[in-house]
Design a protein that fits this description.
Layout lengths: L4 E3 L5 E3 L3 E2 L5 H14 L3 E3 L7 H11 L7 E6 L7 H14 L4 E6 L9 H13 L3 E7 L3 H10 L6 E5 L7 H10 L2 E5 L13 H10 L3 H11 L3 E2 L6 H8 L8 H8 L17
Parallel strand pairs: 3-4, 4-5, 5-6, 6-7, 7-8, 8-9, 9-10
Antiparallel strand pairs: 1-2
The structure holds NADPH dihydro-nicotinamide-adenine-dinucleotide phosphate (NDP).
């Protein structure tokens, strides 16, 4: 079984299914990521702000997996937005990860109140030119923020990583991204366990029809919509479950029924007002 890839607007590709490490304790990260690599994940999503890049790096080094077979994403934290601060931040991330470059570097949040995301985007363009990130993108950007960096730079972000799950399906943003060749990555793909997604009738019904778990149904929903997805789990059993999603397919009716669960409500912060 091989994980499908999505083509990015810079000519590179990204494994569509990966593994996220938000809220994985630093002390546990090496074990968790080692388990994920053993299960078969080759795409890891971390961030400077998660405080666990070192553990990710140790697991990668210990795995013996060739660097070219791995896809590693990290992110520029809000307090490091700017030019020199972004250059320093990527160097520190690479040092903690023990890597010469990442596959994808993202601006973590737009923080429009700081008004430094355009400047930071120019810094990411230079970070890519220096070979420290193969692809660059953004996270938690709305079409308004995207519009601005597209107008004020010569690079369209390769991805926008945003909160996205059946209860907050982000259809207008997905339409905008499709028009502009930006791939969408779903964070909190399982709703972070913050509402009873797995108990909702269309998800429970599809799980029963395909003899799979509700989590597997939700991951399929992301994949079949062309979204990039990296569920997090500290349990090796659930990591394996979340990776075992290529043996069944949701029907058009099942997809539509799950689409109907969109209630337009976030479980996380609003990018326009977040100030952390
Ligand atoms: P998820 O939607 O992936 O949910 C994770 C939760 O679901 C955990 O509590 C986990 O528990 C549980 N879980 C995982 N698999 C299963 C399963 N098969 N059955 C039941 N429960 C399950 O939330 P995340 O916030 O972790 O999102 C995924 C990734 O997205 C992050 O790890 C991070 O990489 C990225 N992210 C990015 C953000 C951004 O601002 N750019 C913000 C938030 C996340 P357990 O560990 O016990 O299995």
């Amino acid at each position: 079984m091989s994980v499908p890839t999505i083509s990015l607007n810079d000519g590179r590709t990204i494994p569509q299914l990966g593994f996220g490490v938000f809220r994985v304790e630093p002390a546990e990260t090496e074990r968790v990521v080692s388990d994920a690599l053993e299960v078969g994940y080759r795409h890891i999503d971390t961030a400077a702000a998660y405080g666990n890049e070192e553990g990710v790096g140790r697991a990668i080094a210990a795995s013996g997996i060739p660097r070219s077979e791995l896809f590693v994403t990290t992110k520029l934290w809000n307090s490091d937005q700017g030019t020199q601060s972004a250059f320093d931040a990527i160097d520190l991330s690479l040092e903690r990860l023990g890597l010469e470059s990442v596959d994808l570097y993202l601006i973590h949040w737009p923080r429009p109140d700081l008004d430094r995301y355009v400047e930071s985007w120019h810094a990411l363009e230079r970070i890519r030119a220096a070979g420290k990130a193969a692809s660059i993108g953004v996270s938690n950007f709305t079409p308004v923020h995207l519009e601005r960096i597209i107008a004020e730079s010569s690079t369209v972000p390769a991805v926008d990583q945003v909160e996205l799950h059946p209860g907050f399906a982000q259809v207008p943003l997905r339409d905008y991204a499709r028009e502009h060749g930006i791939a969408i990555e779903s964070w909190g793909p399982l709703g972070q366990g913050k509402y009873d997604l797995f108990g909702m009738a269309p998800i429970a019904a599809a799980a029963s029809a395909h003899s799979v778990t509700p989590a597997q149904v939700v991951i399929r929903w992301h994949l079949q919509h062309g979204l990039i997805v990296f569920p997090k789990s500290t349990s090796r059993e659930r990591m394996a479950e979340n990776f075992d999603v290529f043996g069944f397919e949701l029907s058009a009716d099942e997809l539509a029924a799950i689409d109907g669960l969109d209630r337009g409500k976030r479980v996380g912060a609003d990018p326009d007002t977040a100030t952390f």
